[in-house]
Write a structure and sequence with these properties.
The chain is mainly β. 2% of the residues lie in helices and 54% in strands. It has a five-stranded antiparallel β-sheet with strand order 1-36-35-34-33, with no helix packed on it. A hairpin with a 5-residue loop joins β58 and β59. The two termini are 39 Å apart.
Amino acid sequence: MIPRRRFLQAATAATVAAGLPATAARAATPAEGTLTDLGPASVASPLGNAEFVGGVLYAGSRGLSPNVVGAYDLAEDSVTAHFDIPTGIGVWAMCKVGTDVYVGTHAKSDLYKLDTVAGSVTKVASFPDHFIWTLASSPDGKVYLGTSEPGKVKEYDPATGATRDLGEAVPGEAYVRAIQADDTHVYAGVGANAHLIAIDRATGERRDLLPSELADRDWVSSMDVSGTHIAGGMNSLAELVILNKADPSDHRVVKATAPGEKYIVSVLIHDGHVYFAGRPTGTFYRCRLDTGDLEVLGVPYFEAATHRILAHEGRVYGVQDNAVFVYDPATGALDYRNLVQRGFRAAAEEPMSVHSDGERVYVGGKSGADIHDLATGAVTRLSIPGEPKTMLTVGGTTYLGVYTQAALYSHRAGDTEARLLARTGNQQDRPRDLAYDDRTGVLVMPTQPEPGHMNGALSFYSPRTGEYVTQRPAVERQTVYSVVTRSGIAYLGTLTQEGLGLPPVTSTARLAAYDLSARALLWQAEPVPDARHISALALGPRHVYGMASTGVVFEFDPRARRVTRTLRVGAKGGDLFVVGRVAYCGDGDKVYKIDLVTFTAKAIVTGLAGQWFGGEPKLALDPSRRALYGVKDRNLVRIAISGNR
């Protein structure tokens, strides 16, 4: 963990109260709903893409507010300027036309022109699509966009300002994740079912160039073209396909060799070679364009994602989360340059998860978690190659479920690093929740499958033995989204979405009971009509309580296997905690207290406007049961609660 910043925590009242008589201490207890601002929840500087103009690398950020393009001057070895990108939650896509850099955002999807000569940024187009994933320019200066959902190809003409919709690359497919263009064609890499589509720029005629033996692959998710060849990175077998443009039947498939490699995340054709990067290992490869002979060039940073590979003045540059690596083909030297240390702006990101062990609060984000010490206010960074989506503390050890690869890590307070315990495999990539069962002694982690794949899984980890076992599916054609346990039984709340890009086959989320000893499903029910997911579950003495994506809280009798009461509470689903005879839940903007006797609710906090990544609001319950933790805008806040008082 690397100390990054300090701020004062308003803990004086608690310190003073500890030395006062009980009546005075009670008087000093903050009223229910009182907020204490603990500063930025998670500070980061993740990059999404970059482009060279002259000797300056223009790198775009993800998840900041606003996002920025930082100008990294190679000669000065420093970031000399920042350019705000005022809309969207991140920059995945960049390309250049002359000295202009085009920047594509997502959610919402806007296209910006950065005039690197004038130093100005102008929004030139807006699109209704959810994401602009990828941009490429043609030799004659047009800009092509790959979008989702559905996966479309768009054209922007800088000369006229006109846009043209070239339609879905493959009808019914959700994503165009890679795009390139030459004088005559636009090439689109498609998922969740892999296609490599060539679109005639003049006529719109389409041709699928992907060899038939690769038709069962998931994605063509990265790509580059030269005058003679196309190279595409495929998921989830970590394969690179190289095709002759004049005769696509003349092709070869090169498989990345690092153990556990699954994705080819970026590709560059340069000087007779194809350079490419793998994930999750972070390995950097190249193969000869003519023979396919493969070399492993190194691992610039273990398990880091390489978002773009570029060539400049004889060297090859890879853009990673907050850094670039530099490879010199002449010498084989591999250099690593942290752009934050060179002046790239770090700022509060949209957090992904929050958890308290009572002495500190973990806030998960991109490439790790910020750990807030509640006694001192100090904040340290726990670096992890991925995104902590869910966390839980058991017996002094905090467990973190990390995207991608549905990895499980552990961390003990004071350790500088987290420990990788297992990867789930089984085509799983996104942890959804964590729970621990005292009777069986296992940690339960549900996961969502990789894009385009069916059936989520449940994984079971024994802290005592280190055994890690996965069962897939747990609930057929569902992803388990939330889990609680009691006395050897796990209660599961599901999500109708399986892998992203795969249309759901069920319309309503389920509540299920699962026997942790027999590893068998006991029963299923649909507690809330038309709910897409059960966002959280909690246990009362006799009932299971849940919150649905619709904002409805339900009470379920597991013995009778029926819903006994429902109550519409929030605008959408969030976390839910039972504290004695009351419960607390949130929808990202409000925190509600529910009287479980009368089954009525009131808002104790309003106006949080929490900026959670992906719009999935979170809350954490302090083990003292006297506080919740959430975010207001992008700041971590402590929320006083009183339980039954």
